[in-house]
Amino acid sequence: xxxxxxxxxxxxxxxxxxxxxxxxxxxxxxxxxxxxxxxxxxxxxxxxxxxxxxxxxxxxxxxxxxxxxxxxxxxxxxxxxxxxxxxxxxxxxxxxxxxxxxxxxxxxxxxxxxxxxxxxxxxxxxxxxxxxxxxxxxxxxxx
Length: 143
Fold this sequence. Notes:
The radius of gyration is 29 Å and the shape is rod-shaped. The protein has helices at 6-24, 27-44, 49-76; strands at 92-100, 103-108, 111-117, 129-136, 139-142.
């Protein structure tokens, strides 16, 4: 065991940190692995153990302090392009069969949808243009 250089141990540690990264999908393990690679590079340059550990700590903490908040901020952002039912909310539709609180049919984005009125006391007649405010299952809620 004493015949193996320190930089090899740092690379083994980096690989070992890559395993929980893949299994748990926690990016912090990847940042620690990069710190271990930095320590391996410092070790390969001939620096002593204190400098190696310092490189590992500095690089790992710097990555966690800088990259993690940026990743968290991007994770909270809604996608720029709405897809699925989110893309249908706010669009206009045409009433095909009378729509009231109990139901009816509309043509939305070229397809026929079941629909019901958001306002229970309101009815929409054939040919009238309406706005889709929500989608519940396969039913469009219109206004």
